[in-house]
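Our consortium's second objective concerns turning raw sequence data into structural hypotheses that experimental partners can test. To show how far this objective has progressed, the report includes one record in full. It was chosen at random from the queue rather than selected for favorable results. The single chain below, 464 residues long, was entered without modification.
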Amino acid sequence: MSVPTVTASRIYDGQKKGLVGERNSLFMERFPYVGLSKTYCADRQVADSACTATAYHTGIKANFETIGVSARVKLKECQEALRAENQLESIASWAQKAGKATGIVTTTRVTHASPAGAYAHTSHRDFESDFDVITRHADPEQCIDIGRQLVENTVSKQFNVIMGGGGAKLLPNSSAHYSGYAGERLDGRNIIDEWIQAKDGTTSFVHTRQQLLELDTDSTNNLIGIFANSHMSYNLDNDGSQPTLQEMTSAAITILSNESNGFFLFVEGGRIDHAHHETKAKKALDETVQFDEAIKRAYELTDPNETLIVISADHGHTMTINGYPKLGNTITGVGTDMTDIDFLPYTTLSYANGPAFSNFFYSSPRSGMDKSENGLLFNTNDHVVKRYDVRKISNIDGKDFQYPAAAPMIDETHGGGDVAIYSSGPWSHLFTGVLEQNVLPIFMSFAACIGPDELNSCNYLKNK
């Protein structure tokens, strides 16, 4: 959720409502305090979601593609990841030690990098099941997979709420389970059943939207909801069988609010990232709007004088809003300007790199007509690379349209720019300025009087 993503989503949301999109505001943009987060890994300029999740869950920056371990652990160093001194505590753990309820909600697999940052310790983010570990030529007894950690790690065993996708990583490959979910685990373990059993029968399990909506959340203390075999559907693809992020967030807050001592909840709109990787910008914007609706619901269900809400992103992406399109021009469509090289229009949204390169560029024999006052187009000996006229592409503005990218890649990469932080509630004024990403949980623990003594504002104020 880069800053350009938020801007484009604001316009997209407004245009959907028939407004002047540029003058629209997302709900999160109305929060009183805004800052910027520096997202780099301990060893990379541009981050992935594993090292960033570690930063904003534990307060410590980690190496690329590692989760919940210090920077002493390099990629695929499983033995080092098993060492207690290299394993990091998350803010969810601090909340549990303070007697608070805890939970995670995501539109990705619950074993994916961002939610896993709350409970897992691994030297590779892709070790989501023992099948993944073996496929990557590692030993599942040395490289403990994230799904297994969900029922073996103290923090995740004590979660009150787990919701998202990822049935395949939690279920054995012996047969189909729960609405036909096809498990992939080779150890025969049913992680869902094990997590439920560990709660001594006090847990509800749901795997459809209808089941979630019919659940009496006021009398539910523990809930696991797995709504897809892999990631949950994009909102624009959802046939109504899966709950929205707003619905999951609402149920989670109601359940966690049954704990009188308060709660910590992590909520992720994770498919914003996936749509960008596919350069399907319209889906990325729509997922951002869905995320914003979940934020609005969270604000409505809590007291802003009692609840700190912090919104940010793992990292950015390479999508830009470019050209000089006229006010009100469809944000997901073709811009209103022509280039001064090939005199063809271009989309307002585009990417620095990504797939579908051949949908927009082609090679053509060079001729005298290819010269302009600015010189040749991309010259390759006797050929030039030209652009197709995007006005003739029929599915522009469609939900699955893949936007142009300058450098061809199978998947678009992340962007390295700072991402925004929006905050509301007690101590939210701390989340301003340009911050290291790993201070987010430090400030949150300070505000909530949880965590190590040096981070605990109650002890700080008492000592003063």
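The partners drew two points from this record. The first helix runs from residue 3 to 16. The chain has 16 helices and 21 strands. Both points have been shared with the crystallography group to help prioritize constructs.
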